[in-house]
Each structure stands twice: as structure tokens, then as C-alpha cells.
Amino acid sequence: MTYRVAVVGATGAVGREMLSTLEEVDFPIKDIYAVASRKSLGVEVSFANRTLRCEDLEQFDFSKVDIVLMSAGGDVSKAWSEKIGKQGPIVIDNSSAWRMDPDVPLIVPEVNPDAVWDCKKKNIIANPNCSTIQMVVALKPLHDAARIKRVVVSTYQSVAGAGKAGMDELWDQTKAVYGLGETEPKKFTKPIAFNVIPHIDVFMDDGQTKEEWKMKVETKKILDPDIEVFATCVRVPVFVGHSESINVEFENPLDEAEAREILREAPGIAVVDKRENGGYVTPKECVGEFDTFISRLRNDPSVPNGLAFWCVSDNLRKGAALNAVQIAQLLDERGVITPVTA
Ligand SMILES: NC(=O)C1=CN([C@@H]2O[C@H](COP(=O)(O)OP(=O)(O)OC[C@H]3O[C@@H](n4cnc5c(N)ncnc54)[C@H](OP(=O)(O)O)[C@@H]3O)[C@@H](O)[C@H]2O)C=CC1
Ligand SMILES: N[C@@H](CC(=O)OP(=O)(O)O)C(=O)O
């Protein structure tokens, strides 16, 4: 079985990773199309040793594809995903536009693969927020073992999470230290070079940011509505790779040695946890990797049945493109879609 796939947002940070991930996992592709805005018409992007010319979203005929990997922002997705779904293909959407819609499944394949069957109402599947994805991949096997009651998480999110413009801003501000670039913040609210900013996405009425709210509500939808989550999301001057310091409180006892063994066996997880210099993973080392890395596992004696750990993943891969491609693989494996090209 082979599929006709369109990548919408193909010129962006996530879209380009989607194309390279489809190639790396050898997804069964019959035809592939790169789609972006009108201004990118004809712009070339690479896929598997060949060049694709971008087509204009407004003019593209979606009835000729089976799967749409959508990564063009929330407003574009709100305007287009439902319309595209009605033309036949399944849309796997990276934005936050559809995640909390009760008729749209929110999927991390290692956690809730069975939800894939719920995509038929709108032909849309939502890809979670990057910070949520890596956290729930780690929490799922621990929850199965000892039932999680509460999670407190602080994130250290790379500028790649703010797209190409975010990466350019860190680069320009870093060069500016040597008098070679721009210094004015545009994408971020304050200078990001040599700084950290405790603010991602918009502020909500209760003082939390929308990024922090997303980590809470998305974890409940994907993993278990009874789990309480409290997040603090911080932007750091790292180009790619999100890190998280996670504290978990379980209902039942689970010590660090048991947790380490469970995580060693868990899908999508790599444990690197040596208590010596360099015996842990940093975001720089996870770039381009598929796994979510766990280090610094410790019992947390400040609460009953407490555990703390460090969690790092490539936000453009597992946090976005890879998870979306794994959802496409799930559609294939479970026979959710039957392409006309079968
Ligand atoms: N970066 C990350 O870690 C994560 C990102 N996401 C989500 O993925 C989406 C894309 O993010 P990212 O790749 O980082 O962003 P970028 O800014 O790097 O890329 C945006 C892409 O969307 C396209 N686009 C924008 N407006 C339109 C339009 N009107 N019609 C067609 N295409 C359009 C752009 O095309 P053009 O070049 O023609 O303007 C470009 O290809 C966002 O929704 C983001 O929230 C989700 C999880 C993680
Ligand atoms: N907000 C994330 C990336 C992102 O685009 O998230 P969302 O798809 O939930 O808006 C970050 O900046 O790291």
C-alpha cells in the first residue's frame, strides 16, 4: 500500500523536518507534494534526493491526496483543515487549532494509539504541543506502573519552537554581541541571546500562559483526566531541543530504580543516567534523534511517592514532525485509511 501525501507548511521549520522524517522512516509514498503560501510558489524544498517545487495552498487540489501533514499555524489550520478533510484526506495537524475539539483525537502513538479510530468525524487528527509530547511519552509507562496523581514541570524550550523566525532572532542577537547583527526583540518579548524568558504563548486571566495551560489540558486528554499538571514554560537560548525538569507524585510506591527499569523498556525512550560528569543528555545532543531522553532520575522525598527526572527531546522531531509521521504510520498499520491507489 502506498500513499499520496501533501506537506502543508513545507518551507517552515516543522514542514522541512516532516519531509526529511518521511524519507528517514521510509514511509510508503506514491506521490508527495510540498505546499505553502502563495509567496513560496515555486520555492524548492528537498525530499529524498529530489527537489519539490512548492504549490500554493489556495490553488492545491486536496482530493488527489490521502494524507495531509499540516504545519502552517493555527489560523491557517482553522480556515483549511475541516474543508480539506471533507475532500477525503486525513489531516494530521501540528497546530493548537483542533487539539481540544471533542471530535478530533489528540495522539501520541506510544500513549493512546487506539484513539486513531476517532478521526472519522472530521478527518482531522491533532498533533499535541511539543512540550506535552515528550512529557507524556515518559509519563505513560510510569502511570501504568504506579498511577500518577500530580506532575509539576518546568520547561527549557528552544527557539525552534517559535519557528524559523525564532531561530533567526537568536542568531542575529548572538552575532550582535560582536556588532554584526540586529538586537531588537521581534519574535520574543525580551532579548533571547544570553537570557531566559519565562513566557511562551499568550497570558491567560489566571496568570498562567497558554503554553502552560496546553501542557495541562493536553496531558489530561491524551493520558488521564485525573492527572493534575502544573507547568512553568520558559524560553532559553538553545537553537533546537526542549528540556524539562519533571516532578511526579504517584498514588502507589515507585522508587527510582524501578522507574529506571520501566523507562529502559518503554517505547520511544532512551535512559542515559550515569551519576558522573556528562552522564546525562543535553538538548544539543538530542538534535536529529527520534527518542526522548531521560536522565537524572531521583526519588523526591519531599512528597509521598515522589520521583524527579530530566527529559530532553528534539522538538522539531518527536515534538512535531516525527510524531505526525508516526501518526501517519499508525493510519497505515491499523488500516484506518484505504488509499484509492491501494
Ligand atoms: N516548531 C515547533 O517546535 C512546533 C511547531 N508546531 C506548530 O507547527 C506549525 C508550524 O510551525 P513552524 O514550522 O515552526 O513555523 P514556521 O514559521 O517555520 O513555518 C510556517 C509555515 O507555514 C506556512 N504558511 C504560513 N502562512 C501560510 C498560509 N497562509 N498559507 C499556506 N502556508 C502558510 C509557511 O509558508 P511560507 O514560507 O510560504 O510563508 C511555512 O511553510 C505551527 O502551527 C506551530 O504552532 C507544533 C509543535 C512544535
Ligand atoms: N509553543 C511551542 C511550539 C508550538 O508551536 O506550540 P503550539 O503548536 O502548541 O502552538 C514552543 O514555542 O516551543
From TrEMBL:
The keyword Chaperone does not apply. SUPFAM superfamilies: Glyceraldehyde-3-phosphate dehydrogenase-like, C-terminal domain, NAD(P)-binding Rossmann-fold domains. Its EC number is 1.2.1.11. Pfam families: Semialdhyde_dh, Semialdhyde_dhC. It comes from the Bacteria. Pathway: Amino-acid biosynthesis; L-lysine biosynthesis via DAP pathway; (S)-tetrahydrodipicolinate from L-aspartate: step 2/4; Amino-acid biosynthesis; L-threonine biosynthesis; L-threonine from L-aspartate: step 2/5; Amino-acid biosynthesis; L-methionine biosynthesis via de novo pathway; L-homoserine from L-aspartate: step 2/3. It catalyses: L-aspartate 4-semialdehyde + phosphate + NADP(+) = 4-phospho-L-aspartate + NADPH + H(+). NADP(+) binds at residues 11-14, 39-40, 315. Coiled coil: none annotated. The active site is at residues 130, 242. Keywords: Amino-acid biosynthesis, Diaminopimelate biosynthesis, Lysine biosynthesis, Methionine biosynthesis, NADP, Oxidoreductase, Threonine biosynthesis. Phosphate binds at residue 99. Residues 4-119 form the Semialdehyde dehydrogenase NAD-binding domain. Substrate binds at residues 157, 235. One of its GO terms (biological process) is lysine biosynthetic process via diaminopimelate. One of its GO terms (molecular function) is NAD binding. Homodimer. Belongs to the aspartate-semialdehyde dehydrogenase family. NCBIfam families: asd_B, PRK14874.1. Catalyzes the NADPH-dependent formation of L-aspartate-semialdehyde (L-ASA) by the reductive dephosphorylation of L-aspartyl-4-phosphate. This is Aspartate-semialdehyde dehydrogenase. The lineage of its organism: Bacteria, Pseudomonadati, Pseudomonadota, Alphaproteobacteria, Caulobacterales.
